[in-house]
Specification:
Layout lengths: L10 H20 L4 H19 L3 H8 L6 H13 L2
Protein name: Lipoprotein
């Protein structure tokens, strides 16, 4: 049987990541961002929240493995929905 070692990420480190992303999002919003930049900040924030809320090493690693949908794909899907309500 393969045993895996759990890695505990300190809460202070996770909190710092969230704070960094929130400050970054605020700064980007204040200087006038493109929709693509705002989308990317939102995706980063969601991933960070996933990592922050992870209770185990397995959950944390699953969050790290999340790949965001490309903005271009997201935008095309959004345009399709808006065109065909």
């Amino acid at each position: 049987m393969l045993k895996t070692k759990s890695v505990v990420i300190p809460a202070a480190t996770r909190k710092l990541r969230v704070d960094f992303i929130l400050v970054g999002a605020l700064l980007l919003t204040l200087v006038g961002c493109t929709n693509k930049q705002l989308y990317q900040v939102g995706q980063s924030y969601q991933k960070s929240e996933c990592e922050h809320d992870a209770l185990t090493d397995v959950q944390f690693k699953a969050c790290q493995g999340i790949e965001a949908k490309r903005y271009e794909d997201y935008d095309q899907e959004r345009e399709d929905v808006l065109a065909n309500p």
